[in-house]
Amino acid sequence: MKWTGVLTFAMVAFLVGIFLAYSFSRPGPTPWVDEPSFEAGMCNRAPQAEQPIVERSERAFSNLHPHVRERSETFVRLAYSCLGLEVRLTSGYRSEDEQNALYAQGRSEPGQIVTNAKAGQSYHNYGLAVDFVIIHDNRADYDLSSDHNRSGVPDWQELGELGKALGFEWGGDWRNFPDYPHLQMDFGLSIRQLAAGKRPGEQATMPLADVLKPLVD
User: Fold this and answer.
1) Which conformational region is residue 170 in: left (phi greater than 0), alpha (psi within -120 to 50 degrees), or beta?
2) pTM: predicted TM-score of the whole model, two decimal places
3) What whole-number percentage of the chain has pLDDT above 70?
4) Looking at the predicted structure, is the pLDDT value of residue 25 above 50?
5) CB burial string 11-30: b at 16+ within 10 A, e below
6) Fewer CB within a 10 Å sphere, N or C end of the chain?
7) Structural domain boundaries in the chain
8) Which class is 41-198+208-215 in CATH?
């Protein structure tokens, strides 16, 4: 009986410890506002001004699926013209070696954990995902509360909604491991299907012109 009581107490203490560790490790509440939206009047397209912004992300466009590349470039352009925000892509296609090196960060290598995906387990490995960052005053800004365009809506929330309007899945919506700088298109394919060799077709998404119509008309 005595040992049973000790074991019960130890088990309860263990479970409480797990709960507290999980509670303190979760990201805090985001500063999001309700129902941000995009309207045609928000976009004052200036292709010549957009082009230098796009060129700064050129390296990240390499080896992306054609639709993902097209939408990623449009994302950078509209972030500038519609939201007044400079965005730079920091990652696109990622090799297996690059993915494993990133996975090791915060585990077997110094740094913070930034991904739960090993090689072959990320949409980056198939050219279907990009990561981005806000550039303000020539510096990367990952502050979720930033509102550089003074819209009353946090910049990261606006960018996440813009990405979704262009057909991306936004990592900021993920509950268990939010990844705010991440956008991906899975084309209805799971990681298991991609690892088995299946790939999206060239005409797998709605034409960009149709996607843009409600945003820029």
Assistant:
1) beta
2) 0.80
3) 78
4) no
5) eeeeeeeeeeeeeeeeeeee
6) N
7) 41-198+208-215
8) alpha beta
